C-alpha cells in the first residue's frame, strides 16, 4: 500500500486535530512517524502485522462514545477502516520522508503571498506602505508612533546607519538650511550612492558568513590572499548587485566571471594539521559540514547542519537531504587558485580610482580600448575632493564645464552633458564617436584638492557593452600641464580583459563519492548519494550521480534564488530590517525554522519579500523604503505607555536607540580626530605585531600610524582573536557565523576607551585639530569640539564645565572625555 496516498490523508482528515503538531492528546502524534510508532500514554497505537491486536483498530471501530476515535465529528468510513486494517496487516510501512509534510505547515515554509496594504485614515502619518502595516499593528495595542525626530538627530542616525560615519558640521548646517521638502530624501540618495555604503554594510554580511583572514584552529596562520572576497562584497553592495546574482556568484562565481566571490565557500576555519587517514577523513567531513551549515543559515534561515547524524528533529530536513547537499560541495577544497579578473576589475556598474591627493582644476580621462572594440560609453563620472568632507566637484550644477573628443551623433539619450548631470543610467550617458577610444575633460570652477575619480558604464545595471578596459586619468592646475595619476590596462595579448592572480577562494576538484553516514560516523558509510537540495524546502532538485562539480553548485544556486523558494527573500529582507532597527521582524535571523522566533509583523515581512523580488532583488530599493518610512524617522523618546506594552519597541512605537558597533565607533574616532584614511580596497592592515612562528602568536600593537588609520572593515580579520581595544565591543571572532551581535556593557569597554594607547593617541590628534581649526580661545575650541563630536552647539552650562576640565587637565583630556560620553557612543 502507498502510505502517503492511502493512509496519511485519513490521519490528516480525522486525527490531526487531536494528535497533530498543535495538540497531542494522550501524548500521541499521528503526524510524525517516530512518535506514532512510539505510541502515547496508553501504549503503542498499533502492532505491525497484527490489526486485531492494535489499539488503533479497537478505537476506530468502537461503539463506546468514551473510547471511540475520533470522539467528535465524522466517523471513519468502512473503506477507511478497511484501508488502515490492510496497512497494519501488511506491516504498517511508513516511509521516513512522509512525516515531513506536517512540519511544512510552519509559516516560513509557506509560499510568499503579497498581502494587501492596510488602509489608514487620511490624517495618518504614514510615509509609505511599511508604515501602514506598523500603524495598524500599533493600534491593536493602543499605541502610536512618535513624532518625527529633529533634523540633526535624523541626519546623524541616517549617516551612521548607511555609511557608519557621523555627518560633518558642514553637512548638518547645510541640511538645517535646506527647506526643500525632499531634503531628507536627497541625503538618503547621496548616502546610498557613496562608496562608504558598501564598507558599512559589508561588515554585516561578513559576520553572517564567518569571514576571516586566518585559518583558525591551533596554528591560526594568515591567509594572505583572502581579502579579495571582502572587496567583492563591498563592491557588490555599492553596485547594488541584485541579490539573486549575489547569491549565485558566491556559490558558483568561478562559472559566472566573479572568481573572488567563491571566497564565501572557504571563508570558514581550516585545520592545517593533518595526520592519519581517519583524522583526515574526519577533518574533510567537518569542512563540508561547515559549508553546508553556513549555506543553510545564511541564505535559507534553516539549520541544515542538524541533519548530519539523523533526520532533523524539528524542521523538514532529512539526513538524506544533508548528504545530498554534501554531494553538491564534494569538489570544494580549501586553498588558493588563480583567478581571471575580467569584470571583477573593470565593472560596468561602478569603478573607483584613488590616487594621492593632488591640487587640480582640470581632469581628463582618456579611453584607450573597450571590451569588443565598440565606442566607449560612460553614464556618470564623478571627481571627489580629499578629506572628511569629501564632495563631488564634477557636477555641472556646481559650474564644472566638460569637453570631449567627440560624441556619437544621432542619439538623444547619449549626450556629453549627461556625463556629469548626476543622473546615472544608459539613458543619461555619453558615447564617444571613436571606435574603442576617446577622451573627456572636466574644468572645475576653481582649483580643488582631489584624490578620487568614480565612473560607470551603466550604474543601473542594464548594459555592460562599450566598457572601457584600458584608460588613463590625468590632472592639471593649468591647461597643458598634465600629470598622470591613474593608468589602467586590463587587456592581455589576445585582446581580452582578464588577468590571472592567486586568491583564497577555494579549489575545485572532481567530486569525491558521497555516502550517507550512519549516525554521521565516517566509519559507517551507507548508500551513495547524488547531489540534491532538501526535498521539502523548494522545487525538486536531484542531479545525476556523475554530475560535474560546477553544475552541482550552479544548480543549487538556481534552486536557492528561485522566486518560488519561500525562504530566500524573506531571510534577506529580515536581515536588512534588523540592521536598520536593531532587531529583525524575525528575531532569529538565521533560523526561520520551527525553533526560531515567530515574526512580529508576518504580513509586512511577506510584503517586503515580494517587493524585493518584483523589484529585481535590488537591496538599495529596500534600504530606501525602510529609511524613508515614518517608523525609521520617528523620535526615540520613550513614554510610559509604550514601555509598558512593548519594552523593546519591537512594534516600533519609537525608534530604538543603540550604541555604535565596534567598527563605526573606531572609524568615527579617526574621522573626528582628522586621521581617517578612506583608501578603499586591497590588503588590510594588521593590529598585531608580525611574527613567523609555527603557531601564530598574537601580540597587540601599542603604536599606530597611517597604515592603521583606515576603516576597520580593512583590518585583517583574525579568527579567534579580536582587536585589543574594540574587540570588547562585541566583535565576533569568526569562529562561527554571527547573524546578530550581542550587546554587552562591561568594565573592559570603559577601561579601553579611557586608557588604551590608541584612544590616548587619537584624543591628542583631536586636540591638535581643534587648536588648528578654532584657535587658542577655549570657548571656540569647545564649540568646535561639540560640533565635531555631537554635531550641535554646546549649551552654556556645558561650556562652563568643559572650561573647568580643560583648565585642570588640558585639552587632550577634554577630547578623551568626549569620546567616552553616551551622546558620542549612542545613536538615538
Automatic annotation (TrEMBL):
Presence of the UniProt keyword Metal-binding in the record: yes
* Keyword terms: Heme, Iron, Metal-binding
Keyword set includes Nucleus: no
User: Which positions fall inside the F5/8 type C domain?
Assistant: 388-539
Residue intervals of the Cytochrome c domain: 2-92
Which InterPro entries does the UniProt record give? Cyt_c-like_dom, Cyt_c-like_dom_sf, Cyt_c_Planctomycete-type, DUF1549, DUF1553, FA58C, Galactose-bd-like_sf
Instruction: Specify the protein name.
Output: DUF1553 domain-containing protein
